Amino acid sequence: MGEETAKIIVLSICGFIGLVFLLSVISSAKKEYKNEKAIVQEKSATIVSKRSSVSGGHYSTKTSYYATFEFEDKERIEISVSGQQSGLLTEGDTGVLNYQGTRFNSFTRN
């Protein structure tokens, strides 16, 4: 393998990693923008399920937490919540969910 070929391979790998990073930033910014444009809603809801998802690799992991709320009209929404919020939510609890787009703001029990 020649020196020029090695440089091309290294630059291609660096470019690919940069592109993946850029696409991730753009995706996060789009989600945040959509949430900011959404109206804040408060609806009566019941917590019907909770789940967590672990991602990562050998050296570090990230746990994401989700709660599914069911409204009086039987519509459901799954929202990402923090680990602390997840610990405070219990399946079967009823109350008022305050959310904006896909952003969890609060849940007040009845």
Secondary structure elements and pairings:
Elements: H1 3-37, E1 40-56, E2 61-71, E3 76-81, H2 83-88, E4 94-100, E5 103-109
Q: What structural class results from the helix and strand content?
A: alpha+beta
Helix-strand string: HEEEHEE
Cα-atom radius of gyration = 20 Å
User: How are strands sequenced across the largest beta sheet?
Assistant: 3-2-1-4-5
The CATH topology label of the largest domain is: OB fold (Dihydrolipoamide Acetyltransferase, E2P)
Number of strands: 5
Mean pLDDT across all amino acids: 92
> Largest sheet at a glance?
5 strands, antiparallel
How many separate helices?
2
- The N- to C-terminal Cα distance equals 69 Å
- DSSP helix fraction: 25-40%
Instruction: Identify the CATH class of the largest domain.
Output: Mainly Beta
Shape: elongated
- How many structural domains? 2
Query: Spans with pLDDT under 50 lasting ≥5 residues?
Result: none
Which key features would you list for this structure?
single chain; 110 residues; alpha+beta; OB fold (Dihydrolipoamide Acetyltransferase, E2P); 2 domains; five-stranded antiparallel sheet; 37% helix; elongated
